[in-house]
Amino acid sequence: MPLDESQAVFLSDSMKKVKITAIRQTTYPDLMEKYENPIEHTCDIKEGQQWIAIDGQCPERMCPSAWSSMQQFVESLAHGQGNFFDGWMKNPMSAMISCNDGFRPFSFYIEVVNE
Fold first, then answer.
1. Other C-beta atoms within 10 Å of 66: how many?
2. I want to staple 66 with a disulfide (CB 3.0 to 4.6 A). Which of 42, 99, 108, 114 is the partner?
């Protein structure tokens, strides 16, 4: 869980950088054909693309929809929290999060950067 503002201010000097890596995109053409109105432009994210979130903030050029799916995890990791869902990830200071596009979701690996 993200910290409240009073705790965030107290820990701001020790916040960790969080690396976000676009791992894989899945597409569902059958669902697009059945439910989606044709659109000209979708997200510009490419597999392997990386960003660094500093102080738990959204990195430049991050898809707003993807960010809304991962924001709480990034903020928690930046504040030194981890081990989500009692041992879900092999690396307890990481998470695998998918964006909320039901037709072409991207999976993102987010992890604390050790400096």
1. 23
2. 99
